[in-house]
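Person: Please comment on this record:
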Amino acid sequence: MLLGEALLLKVLAIPLLAWIGWLDFTTQKISNRDVLLLLCLGAGGLLLLSLQTGSWWDMGLSALAGLLLFAALFPFWVLRKVGAGDVKLIAVVPFLIGGGDLAVFSVLLLVFALATAAIVKNPFMLPAGAFRLIVQHLDRKGVVPFGVPISIAAICTLAFLIYKSLVLASSSGILNQLN
């Protein structure tokens, strides 16, 4: 039953990540409250999975990955290349994803970061309405919101993990036993 609660915490993180991405795009701010809520959702899910499996490996790996990501991006914050909210958000994502699935998140983050860079370099690729919105926003703010590709990559990774868990649960007959 703990697997269901851990899955629910992942589902609850998706709208919060969407909210963080939208706020970062519109205001260039990621609040500490939102990052702490994500941390609680992620750590709670990992705790439930660790209690179910009896192994703390995934939680330790997630904590180590979060610490390494924070340490790797902290100098970029000091140099004012990324915002503090972006650094905190990327450090919390391993708790949401889990240590074993960080490769999926990393690939998706690379794809979405490259897409963001391509859109910033050549906004003519977008439809007219989106082009106007992006260009007006970039002219006004002068910075690229890195929290948006982080949030989108985390949402896609969580959706994949939820799908994978549901397929595994339905193929193993667990769902039939619960009914």
